[in-house]
Design goal:
About 50% of the residues lie in helices and about 15% in strands. The protein has helices at about 5-20, 30-35, 50-65, 75-80, 95-105, and strands at about 25, 40-45, 65-70, 90.
């Protein structure tokens, strides 16, 4: 049985690959732009991100019916994608999104907008 920490680590590795292959975008501004262009498929949000950042991104994703999962640390999320820290990583590649969703469900994490 894999632990939550191992699964989260796998999610971070997938996100790192996704950013390098341009299948993911990093940061509130880029994720908001992808959502507006309807290219955002899934997102990973740091639960310790500032309220300002979360207020900019979460309502937009809910309005656009984009599912997302939360991870505990903006620093760890940022490190996974080559930054000091980041509030959100948006996935625009369908295969990458499917892989991260699979891991999220294996972790037992309920993604927001699960019923959509």
């Amino acid at each position: 049985m894999t632990t939550d920490a191992e699964i989260t680590s796998r999610v971070y590795r997938l996100l790192g690959l996704g950013v390098r292959s341009r299948g993911a975008v990093v940061g509130v501004k880029q994720v908001r732009e992808a959502a507006r262009r309807n290219t955002l498929i899934f997102a990973v949000v740091a639960s310790d991100a500032s309220a300002n950042s979360r207020d900019k991104i979460v309502p937009l994703m809910q309005a656009r019916r984009v599912k997302f999962m939360e991870v505990p640390s903006a620093a760890a999320l940022g490190a996974a994608v080559g930054r000091d820290q980041t509030a959100v990583v948006g996935i625009i590649d369908p295969q990458l999104a499917a892989g991260v969703r699979t891991l999220a469900s294996a972790r037992g994490t309920r993604t927001v907008q699960e019923d959509v």
